[in-house]
Design goal:
5 helices, alpha+beta
Length: 182
């Protein structure tokens, strides 16, 4: 189940937070609750992705993207993610999420998110996001303009560009060799 109480808490906490620039960093604080854990007594990897979703949603609010989406009738979707899990998040542990856009190309926005326990990075994710309308993907520069951002994307970091290039070699749709059929 989606953590609606956590979402409401984030909106209440951030409703008066200062606006961020399109490339600003949003930080939120959380705790691993019993409903977040799996059979290995650590935060479930699916819950981690949901916590990151909360960070992206609040980031979108603070940078003015949610307003631009509503005003233009656009939708927001995730188009890809690469995640590194490096440290277990145990029950009742406090942690923080850090969310920021790193730039965009002609089709997608790229977001860097991480979860930190003290000074240790537990999880880091690179997301590819798209804004859509009835005609398909909205060019990210048009979105940036609608948000009041003046200028173009900064150059994408080399590691982000390498991920984009590597992902472009992945076959789509995936090859179905029939091994998944009964």
């Amino acid at each position: 189940m989606y953590p609606l109480i956590r979402l409401a808490k984030e909106y209440l906490l951030q409703r008066k937070a200062p606006a961020l620039s399109i490339l600003g960093t949003h930080v939120s604080h959380h705790r691993c609750w019993p409903q977040d854990i799996d059979i290995f007594m650590e935060m479930n990897n699916g819950r981690i992705l949901t916590i990151l979703d909360l960070g992206r949603t609040t980031l979108a609010y603070r940078v003015g993207m949610l307003r631009a989406l509503r005003q233009n009738g656009w939708g927001l979707t995730m188009a890809g993610v690469s995640v590194r899990y490096r440290k277990r998040i145990r029950p009742f542990v406090k942690f923080r999420t850090v969310s920021k856009a790193v730039g965009w190309d002609h089709r997608f926005l790229y977001l860097d998110q991480s979860i930190w326990i003290g000074d240790d990075c537990a999880v880091q994710a690179l997301y590819r996001s798209a804004v859509t309308d009835k005609n398909g993907i909205v060019p990210p520069q048009k979105i940036a303009d609608a948000m009041g951002h003046q200028g173009v994307s900064p150059p994408l970091p080399a590691w982000v560009q390498a991920w984009i290039d590597a992902d472009a070699t992945r076959p789509w749709p995936p090859v179905d060799d029939g091994s998944t059929q009964g």
